[in-house]
Design goal:
88 residues; mainly alpha; 3 helices; elongated
């Protein structure tokens, strides 16, 4: 009977399964440590950032007004002395 499972196949399957479980266990133990370091890195970034850079690299929707046009619209509202902007 050549179709029977030999001991080598069972050992190989067991070692592979235990290896995958070990990798998952190590990753689950390293995740909080890694998250702490990422949080510290983000805190340093937030201390050193500028508002101008944030507005340039901000994630925007395709429906958002580009910053240049938004500034122009705000300036037009100010120049109208508080009057409502004209509708097109």
């Amino acid at each position: 009977m050549d179709e029977t499972m030999n001991t080598g196949m069972i050992v190989e399957f067991a070692v592979t399964t235990l290896g995958v479980i070990a990798i998952i266990a190590v990753l689950s133990l390293l995740t909080p440590w890694l998250a702490k370091h990422v949080d510290n890195w983000i805190a340093k970034y937030r201390d050193n950032h500028s508002a101008k850079r944030d507005s340039i690299y901000a994630v925007r929707s395709i429906y958002d007004i580009p910053p240049e046009e938004k500034k122009a619209a705000e300036q037009a509202e100010i120049s109208n002395d508080g009057e409502a902007p004209e509708e097109q």
